[in-house]
Design goal:
heterodimer; A: alpha/beta; Rossmann fold; eight-stranded mixed β-sheet; six-stranded parallel β-sheet; 20 helices; B: 209 residues; six-stranded mixed β-sheet
Chain lengths: 645, 209
């Protein structure tokens, strides 16, 4: 049994924020959960999938975030409680449906959990989902600690069912991927029957058709729902004040920034001078509750991450309330007290609070800081991210890079989102020349591929992972096929959504809960679109290069090369070496070879090491995954591979 | 639940586990967190695992306290203990979180960054690393956990050896009983014995050191 559902009510557990959210959904009695993998959100659906049989849930990894929200919404329309989960930019993908769902309303409780990644620790953007709540007018909650990450979910479901609207509960990396205390609540027995009533009066929200029109009427209804949400927020248990009755500085904060603010007050020993107003309901802010607390101090510091979302709401309310609360002095992002980009941390919070209080704070004595900096600068060489040892992407990009060099027509690769995004860095020989959103590599390539009439003659290559292919490449590929764009799409098929922890996708014969399902065949889909399709094993470097050169050099139209080799961390491969690799020191000629130390200086697999003293390459047997690719590259035949026992 | 039975010497007590993606940082932090929670403490863990498995530096921040609601990130200069699975990573952590009173337990097995493999950067000598880490700490223990783990048949036991070594240093209230209860919940039954052996061998590394 998964530990998510072990333990008695009242027991205290160490839960990751995402586990707390998943547990909260179980305590809320959900029936359906859907999402698309994306750091830092993936563990929520993963954990729910593990208990789907025991808790009688339907849990799926949907093809993309928009479909995930549609799947969850269908459950709501049929009267069930449903949870939808995605990372921040997933909300952009889902936003068209989101807008119309806010118009149509919902029935069974429906909660959307986006997990934002301030500072882009595992993203290529630091986009924010909070603004969508304001833009499409749905209530927004933000947990301020681990217990709230669990407790807020049932509260959000109650609110959703009271108002018949979608509710957003937004998390961030430092809650989702951090762990802390969570006290377990009871798990309910759910026996709702799914049924979609649709034959009542057309404007009946519980029995009629579910439509976003008539638009003005439904928009008015949504605004009335939001007004009711504000009433609920006035007495919401997740809005709290801690501190003296009349502090010198009032911090207004939410989410993980609540924890940094608490730390800042502690580090400055300013408990008697500073109060913290932690908002769990951040859009819209409840005006009477805010008035009561904004009265406390003349100086307000707003601590939040990325854009000044909370700050703007507080300032609008403060302007409206000025006749009763007086004129305030504000510190926040707008005046530069809190950095405008990147994630917050205790150090940034303490710097902001020190400024608002007019005190100074030194985190580290200068002498130690200088000594440590000097040692680390010399002693800790930068550690750039690399493809894992045995990763098929290293071999794939080695070949793609070399083929474009040999072709010698300034060809380039449009990148996409996955582990293979790293190919913009040295580990992938800086092969990617564009990198945007899911599917954009193929969309851009489709556009480049139409520019021949303007003199454009560079070969255009796009790459896509197998999960990304289904998520957003399909429409771009249809576009390229239909318009006969001259491009080569390389599908890096490593048999799973490897980047985020091996979630299944429609190309695999297993679903989120481990059930057997129909696998869609990527090659046949591409063929049906009229593409010329080839399949190669990227570990066979010579054959892959030959195929790719032929495709790049071929005439017009859409060409697809599928490079198929499972991820080195996939369950079938992890911990097993296909080959035992060793260096024959009598054959390795080191710097005198003329290969420019191809294996270490150029190929750069972390399973290799350069022994400067002996002047030969070495295999790091702890790290080497035994893929054998380096053995096929060494011109001296000094890297020897033998089938592992 | 037991009550707190030994003073940590600081509240919150700030422990950083660091290493390179793929070394088992997250497992080690979970294990230590659960062992300390079994002692009655509140534990908060912050992970940086975007780089996990991809050769980047990774860090877990553990805050151990009599109360909850701590920041999952330790403030600059505030570490009490650094456990490093790789020696250059200890220096990187000390630069941000170190102070003259910090304890360091360091595994000496190097993992070369690709800049080192390609020859653009130099990896320091073991003796240099020991000197720097000693200078930047109150006390440091250096162990060769990966080599012992390899001799046991799998380098991934390195992190369990370090947990055993940490228990043997006595800087935190960790004992074999709590390790055994916790590891039984975290790994399949047939792996428990090997993990207990790794824990014990780790303790011997410090005793010998």
């Amino acid at each position: 049994m998964s530990y998510l559902i072990q333990g008695e009510t009242g027991e205290r557990r160490l839960f990751m924020g995402n586990e707390a959210i998943a547990r909260g959904a179980l305590e809320a009695g959900i029936s359906v959960a859907a999402g698309y993998p994306g750091t830092p959100s993936s563990e929520i659906i993963e954990n729910l999938a593990k208990v789907s049989a025991e808790r009688h849930l339907y849990v799926e990894w949907s093809v993309n975030e928009k479909v995930a929200l549609e799947v969850a919404a269908a459950a709501s329309l049929a009267g069930l409680r449903a949870l939808c989960v995605m990372k921040q930019n997933g909300v952009n993908v889902a936003s068209d449906f989101l807008l119309h769902l806010s118009g149509s309303g919902t029935r069974g409780g429906l909660v959307l959990v986006p997990c934002d990644d301030p500072g882009a620790l595992s993203s290529v953007n630091e986009g924010e989902s909070r603004h969508f709540a304001r833009m499409i007018e749905i209530p927004l909650l933000e947990p301020g600690n681990f217990q709230e990450a669990k407790a807020m979910i049932p509260w959000a479901f109650e609110l959703s069912e009271q108002l018949r609207t979608l509710v957003m509960v937004r998390s961030v990396t430092r809650l989702s991927h951090a762990s802390g205390d969570v006290t377990l609540g009871p798990l309910p027995t759910v026996s709702r029957r799914a049924f979609f009533k649709h034959d009542g009066f057309i404007l009946d929200p519980m029995e009629g058709a579910m439509l976003s029109g008539p638009v003005e009427l439904k928009h008015t209804w949504q605004q009335e729902k939001v007004a009711k949400a504000v009433e609920a927020f006035e007495s919401c248990p997740f809005n709290t004040y801690t501190g003296p009755a009349k502090p010198e500085v009032l911090i207004v904060t939410s989410s993980a920034c609540n924890l940094y603010s608490l730390e800042a007050v502690r580090l400055l020993k300013a408990e008697a001078r500073v109060g913290i107003l932690k908002m769990g309901t951040t859009w819209p802010l409840p005006p009477r509750f805010m008035e009561k607390h904004l009265r406390r101090a003349d100086t307000i510091l707003i601590v939040e991450e990325v854009l000044p979302f909370l700050e703007e709401s507080v300032k609008i309310l403060s302007a409206e309330l000025a006749p009763v609360i007086g004129i305030k002095k504000f510190f926040g992002k707008r005046d530069g007290t809190i950095p405008a980009t990147g994630e917050m941390n205790p150090d940034r919070a303490v710097a902001g609070l020190a400024k608002a209080l007019g005190v100074s704070y030194a985190a580290m004595p200068d002498a130690y800081a200088q000594k440590a900096l000097a040692a680390a600068t010399t002693g800790a060489p930068d550690r750039d991210l690399t493809f894992c040892p045995g990763c098929p992407h290293r071999a794939s990009f080695w070949t793609i890079h070399n083929a474009l060099q040999i072709d010698n027509r300034q060809g380039f690769v449009c990148g996409d989102i996955g582990c293979y995004s790293l190919a913009m860095r040295p580990t992938g020989y800086e092969t990617l020349k564009t990198l945007h959103s899911m599917g954009s590599g193929t969309g851009l390539a489709s556009g480049f591929g139409m520019l021949g009439r303007f003199g454009f003659d560079q070969p255009v290559v796009a790459v896509s992972g197998d999960s990304t292919f289904f998520h957003a490449v399909l429409p771009a590929l249809a576009n390229a096929a239909h318009h006969r764009a001259d491009i080569t799409l390389i599908i890096l098929d490593n048999s799973g959504t490897a980047m985020t922890g091996f979630q299944p996708h429609p190309g695999l014969s297993v679903d989120a809960a481990g059930h057997a399902v129909q696998a869609l065949d990527i090659a046949r889909i591409c063929e049906a679109m009229g593409a010329e399709v080839h399949v190669s094993d990227p570990f066979d470097v010579a054959q892959t290069q030959e195929r790719l050169l032929a495709l790049i050099g071929a005439g017009q139209g859409l060409k697809v090369l599928i490079l198929r080799q499972a991820c080195a961390l996939s369950p079938q491969k992890k911990g097993r070496k296909q080959f035992q690799i060793r260096i024959d020191e009598t054959l390795c000629r080191g710097e005198s070879c003329g290969c420019n130390r191809l294996c270490t200086r150029v190929f750069k697999c972390p399973g290799l090491a350069w022994d400067a003293k002996q002047g030969v390459s070495r295999i790091d047997e702890v790290i080497c995954a035994g893929c054998g690719v380096c053995a096929s590259l060494c011109p001296a035949g000094a890297i020897v591979k033998e089938e592992a026992k | 639940m037991e009550t707190v039975d030994r003073s940590l010497g600081a509240d919150p007590y700030n422990l950083i586990i660091t290493g390179v993606g793929g070394q088992g940082n997250v497992l080690a932090s979970r294990l230590l967190g659960n062992m300390l929670m079994a002692r009655g403490y509140h534990v908060t863990i912050g992970e940086t695992f975007g780089a996990s498995q991809r050769g980047g530096s990774v860090m877990s921040h553990l805050r151990v306290s009599g109360q909850s609601d701590l920041s999952p990130q330790i403030p600059r200069g505030q570490a009490h203990l650094v456990v490093s699975l790789e020696p250059t990573e200890a220096l990187r952590v000390l630069r941000e979180y170190g102070n003259q009173d910090v304890y360091v337990l360091c595994n000496m097995r190097p993992i070369h960054a690709i800049g080192v493999i390609s020859g653009e950067a130099r990896y320091p000598e073991a003796e240099e690393l020991k000197q720097w880490i000693t200078d930047l700490s109150r006390q440091a223990w250096f162990v060769n956990a990966t080599e012992v783990a390899m001799a046991m048949g799998n380098p991934i036991f390195g992190n369990i050896l370090l947990v055993g070594a940490l228990a043997a240093t006595g800087v935190l209230p960790l004992d074999r009983g709590h390790f055994e209860t916790t590891i039984r919940r975290m790994v399949p039954a047939d792996k428990v014995a090997a993990n207990l052996t790794a824990f014990d061998r780790g303790g011997q590394l410090v005793a010998q050191g």
